[in-house]
Design a protein that fits this description.
The complex is a heterodimer of chains A (about 220) and B (about 100). Chain A is an alpha/beta fold. Chain A has seven helices and eight strands, in the order βααβββααβαβαββα. Chain B is α+β, with helices and mostly antiparallel strands. In chain B, β1, α2 and β2 form a beta-alpha-beta unit. The chains are: A alpha/beta (about 220), B alpha+beta (about 100).
């Protein structure tokens, strides 16, 4: 029957689906590189953390506080620059090089078209400095959205939104801001859990439907 | 790798199964559509498969033998590769074939 004896099955197992095709494919196809999570050996595991450790200072329906921060190229990016243009998903993540964060933004890379088709962009923010964010996002193969450093004065923007934790990191939180600069949705996750891309897509669809009904 | 297996007409000797550890069906679908993957991809949102196999790093590749000398046997792990594959997909596929004695 089988001249070669053993019939074999290869199984690829990954922590993030994105890595299913593996890093090697990434060398030939930049697209899959951008959806690869950071290799496990480069990740620092802080262990289980207090789920939530701050008090929100903004609410749904309010104008989002404006801010200006440097991106991974050292260029200033202002929230108000996106006004009238796109919905903005402000994604605060606790720290570079940690387990969940190193999978969350690659998932946004995977969902780039889903997010952009909804006339939305992501803005990623951490309290890490620019060189660290640059190295970390390069390890993910880059991010299609701006990644901003809230490093100095430390966590100033996170504090404005009320997501700066007592240890100086931020919550894992998203704020969806509409084209008028109004906060339409807030999700502060358990810092230890991975937010699901489909939840973000559902939130965007709900806001889009609300806006369509208003017209 | 899947493309290589088909190209080399090894589809009946070696199958690929992708398991998306900590991935939801939605995420698996995004991946499948985005990269046009044609081999089975299954979500493992609660990581039960990853835990059962003791897989901790990303990605991990396991080569599993389902038969021996043409007879079915309990699945036997032949080889495990942890982390991103070294070198190109072609090189990696050759090492998989070599471990599988194909």
């Amino acid at each position: 029957m089988n001249m070669h004896g053993a019939k074999l099955m290869a199984i690829a197992l990954t922590l993030m689906l994105l890595a299913l095709s593996g890093g090697a494919a990434a060398q030939n196809t930049p697209l899959s590189a951008r959806t690869s999570p950071v290799p496990a050996e480069k990740i620092y595991d802080p262990g289980q953390l207090k789920a939530r450790d701050s008090m929100l200072k903004v609410h749904v329906g309010e104008k989002a506080p404006d801010f200006r921060l440097k991106d991974t190229n050292g260029h200033w990016v202002r929230l108000a620059d996106f006004k009238e243009l796109t919905y903005v998903v402000l994604s605060f993540v606790p720290a570079a090089w940690t387990p969940v964060c190193s999978a969350q933004w690659p998932a946004y890379n995977l969902a780039q078209e889903e997010i952009q088709n909804r006339n939305a962009t992501v803005i990623g923010i951490t309290v890490d400095n620019v060189p660290t964010l640059s190295a970390w996002t390069k390890e993910m193969g880059g991010c299609w959205f701006p990644v901003l450093s809230d490093f100095y004065p430390h966590g100033q923007v996170a504090a404005k939104f009320g997501v700066l934790r007592t240890d100086g990191t931020t919550e894992r939180a998203i704020f969806v801001i509409d084209r008028q600069g109004v906060i339409r949705a807030i999700d502060v996750y358990d810092i230890n859990t991975m937010p699901r891309v489909e939840e973000l897509i559902q939130v965007l669809d709900k806001i889009i439907a609300e806006d369509a009904a208003r017209k | 790798m899947h493309a290589l297996s088909l190209q080399q007409q090894l589809g009946d000797k070696i199958k690929l199964l992708g398991i998306g550890a900590n991935n939801t069906p939605f995420e698996v679908n995004l991946y499948r559509n985005k990269f046009g993957q044609r081999f089975p991809l299954v979500p493992d949102a609660d990581m039960s498969a990853a835990k059962a196999l003791g897989v901790t790093s990303t990605p991990t590749y396991l080569l599993v033998a389902l038969t021996k000398d043409g007879n079915a046997q309990a699945p036997l792990v032949v080889h495990v590769w942890e982390g991103r594959m070294p070198g190109s997909a072609d090189e990696f596929w050759e090492s998989v074939k070599s471990k599988a004695k194909l």
